[in-house]
Amino acid sequence: MTSQEINEAILRSLGYDNKKDGREVRWHKTEPSGTLVINERLPDFATNLKAIYDAEWELSQEEHERFAEELRIVVGRDYGVPLGEFAVVSACARQRAEAFLRMKGKWA
Fold first, then answer.
1. What letter does residue 14 receive in the DSSP assignment?
2. Worst-scoring range by mean pLDDT, 2-6, 45-49, 87-91?
3. For residues 32 and 29, what is the distance between their CA atoms, to the nearest angstrom?
4. Which of 5, 8, 34, 101 has the most CB atoms at less than 10 Å from its CB?
5. Per-residue pLDDT band at 17 (split at 50, 70, 90)
6. Backbone angles phi, psi at 80, to 5 degrees
7. Which is more confidently placed, 62 or 88?
8. Pairwise CA distance, residues 15 & 77, whole Å
9. CA torsion 95→50→101→103, rounded to 10°?
């Protein structure tokens, strides 16, 4: 997947949708409280650790456990060796984004 596809897929999995407002695309979602949340820019989950960490905070406990397992698989594949907990702390943003989308069933 390209970085653009990864970024859009993660935002959609977090409940955001996009609308074209003139020449700009705005990403928005409505929180359960009814609050409208708007992202003016598409977060760069594929290269920015802070952005993907923020997305990880949205996961339930069950999703986070599945995410950690996917992350071990992705990092182990990339490094050529099976890794334990080290994978969770050593993964780059792109690996974390891939594991996030694999856990959600959205990796293409």
1. T
2. 87-91
3. 10
4. 101
5. confident
6. 80, 10
7. 62
8. 29
9. 90
Q: Amino acid letter at 15?
A: G
**Six token digits for residue 94:** 């792109």
Sheet strands (E) in the chain: 17-21, 24-30, 36-39
Q: How many residues does the chain have?
A: 108
The span from the first CA to the last CA of the chain, in angstroms, equals: 6
CB atoms within 10 A of CB 33: 5
User: Number of structural domains, the chain?
Assistant: 1
Model confidence pLDDT, tens digit, residues 24-81: 677 888 888 888 888 777 899 999 999 999 999 999 999 999 999 999 899 888 887 7
* DSSP, res 54: H
